[in-house]
């Protein structure tokens, strides 16, 4: 059907690896932040909320450039991580994962937050009267009830991460086999004289992945409603 | 068994109650808005008194002067809410087992069997709460609270959400519970008939104040 070349496979697999790692690493942070925003009132909450949503509205090239300034070899955090922990982001696939994680974070957090907000707090009270310490309440009641929302957030974040382009190419460039994801491969191919066919194949792959993720997110959202009704 | 001497301001409403009881079933009686639920929530630790003390089974769980406030989960109480509040993501068996797991108690099959038989919920164990009737839900909630081995069982209008027929279906279970389970109870209700059947002692609340205290005969 689709005659995908080894070079295209490299880009597809790299995209998947980048998106999977970005989503898995972002998820615990996403859950913690979603819980904080859903449940706690604190000074500077609206500022934090705005910062989380910033990558959604900022031009991706700006986010990428800021990442380069911060996490680049000479960046404040980047230099520290490289010198002390040996972790390098600049021009590596890990940097692509970082860029994708940050760009997809708002989409990942939102369903998680909504599902935590939808939980009946009286169930958590009931758990407490049965002897559950607050952290046990979180893991045995809050998180299981929010799970469909958590999964929906992960799926959406994954879909966004796999399609990320602007911040990634700005931060880690477009190196085949290291940082060239589906998006940047398409970008290169449509600038090459006879790259149309290859670009077309990757476009189809992108559409399939994105559609699949949206359908999965929708399915998880439906499950969430059923679960909260106890069926 | 239970000693309460508290004050609490809730918006316009002020609650000030003082009583102590050794009764097996303390009936907390009063019209809606008399402060019954707030009082029970304070005994449970879900609400904090502005001033005063609460002691359960000789242990001070609240003492505002001494800065003591034992959190709900360490009070070893059971609480049956009007709306059951079963965990929708767990089946009946898992709901029943929840308190035991959270308190790290060893499994006690004999006790489990006794409670399941007492409440007649053996046939429901595999079901999800969404598939239960209101009366079944309330029986499971009772069992769940009992199996956490509480030293005091709080029941806040446990029949309040049920129609008359269902009430009559549950009442005998509550009577058996009183006579066989050997756990002291605080039973909140605005229904005189219910309390006559169940309570051994009455605390009458009116607009946030205790107006009478004594045997079931104060319910006239």
From TrEMBL, chain A:
<keyword id="KW-0812">Transmembrane</keyword>
<dbReference type="InterPro" id="IPR011867">
    <property type="entry name" value="ModB_ABC"/>
</dbReference>
<dbReference type="GO" id="GO:0015098">
    <property type="term" value="F:molybdate ion transmembrane transporter activity"/>
</dbReference>
<feature type="transmembrane region" description="Helical">
    <location>
        <begin position="12"/>
        <end position="38"/>
    </location>
</feature>
<comment type="similarity">
    <text>Belongs to the binding-protein-dependent transport system permease family. CysTW subfamily.</text>
</comment>
<keyword id="KW-1003">Cell membrane</keyword>
<keyword id="KW-0997">Cell inner membrane</keyword>
<dbReference type="InterPro" id="IPR035906">
    <property type="entry name" value="MetI-like_sf"/>
</dbReference>
<dbReference type="InterPro" id="IPR000515">
    <property type="entry name" value="MetI-like"/>
</dbReference>
<feature type="transmembrane region" description="Helical">
    <location>
        <begin position="50"/>
        <end position="72"/>
    </location>
</feature>
<dbReference type="Pfam" id="PF00528">
    <property type="entry name" value="BPD_transp_1"/>
</dbReference>
<feature type="transmembrane region" description="Helical">
    <location>
        <begin position="137"/>
        <end position="159"/>
    </location>
</feature>
<dbReference type="GO" id="GO:0005886">
    <property type="term" value="C:plasma membrane"/>
</dbReference>
<keyword id="KW-0813">Transport</keyword>
<feature type="transmembrane region" description="Helical">
    <location>
        <begin position="84"/>
        <end position="109"/>
    </location>
</feature>
<comment type="function">
    <text>Part of the binding-protein-dependent transport system for molybdenum; probably responsible for the translocation of the substrate across the membrane.</text>
</comment>
<keyword id="KW-0472">Membrane</keyword>
<keyword id="KW-0500">Molybdenum</keyword>
<protein>
    <recommendedName>
        <fullName>Molybdenum transport system permease</fullName>
    </recommendedName>
</protein>
<feature type="domain" description="ABC transmembrane type-1">
    <location>
        <begin position="12"/>
        <end position="215"/>
    </location>
</feature>
<feature type="transmembrane region" description="Helical">
    <location>
        <begin position="198"/>
        <end position="221"/>
    </location>
</feature>
<keyword id="KW-1133">Transmembrane helix</keyword>
TrEMBL record, chain B:
<dbReference type="GO" id="GO:0005524">
    <property type="term" value="F:ATP binding"/>
</dbReference>
<dbReference type="GO" id="GO:0016887">
    <property type="term" value="F:ATP hydrolysis activity"/>
</dbReference>
<dbReference type="GO" id="GO:0140359">
    <property type="term" value="F:ABC-type transporter activity"/>
</dbReference>
<dbReference type="GO" id="GO:0016020">
    <property type="term" value="C:membrane"/>
</dbReference>
<dbReference type="InterPro" id="IPR017871">
    <property type="entry name" value="ABC_transporter-like_CS"/>
</dbReference>
<protein>
    <submittedName>
        <fullName>Molybdenum ABC transporter ATP-binding protein</fullName>
    </submittedName>
</protein>
<dbReference type="Pfam" id="PF00005">
    <property type="entry name" value="ABC_tran"/>
</dbReference>
<comment type="function">
    <text>Involved in beta-(1--&gt;2)glucan export. Transmembrane domains (TMD) form a pore in the inner membrane and the ATP-binding domain (NBD) is responsible for energy generation.</text>
</comment>
<dbReference type="InterPro" id="IPR011868">
    <property type="entry name" value="ModC_ABC_ATP-bd"/>
</dbReference>
<feature type="domain" description="ABC transporter">
    <location>
        <begin position="1"/>
        <end position="220"/>
    </location>
</feature>
<keyword id="KW-0547">Nucleotide-binding</keyword>
<dbReference type="InterPro" id="IPR003593">
    <property type="entry name" value="AAA+_ATPase"/>
</dbReference>
<dbReference type="InterPro" id="IPR027417">
    <property type="entry name" value="P-loop_NTPase"/>
</dbReference>
<dbReference type="InterPro" id="IPR003439">
    <property type="entry name" value="ABC_transporter-like_ATP-bd"/>
</dbReference>
<dbReference type="InterPro" id="IPR050334">
    <property type="entry name" value="Molybdenum_import_ModC"/>
</dbReference>
<keyword id="KW-0067">ATP-binding</keyword>
<dbReference type="GO" id="GO:0015098">
    <property type="term" value="F:molybdate ion transmembrane transporter activity"/>
</dbReference>
<comment type="similarity">
    <text>Belongs to the ABC transporter superfamily.</text>
</comment>
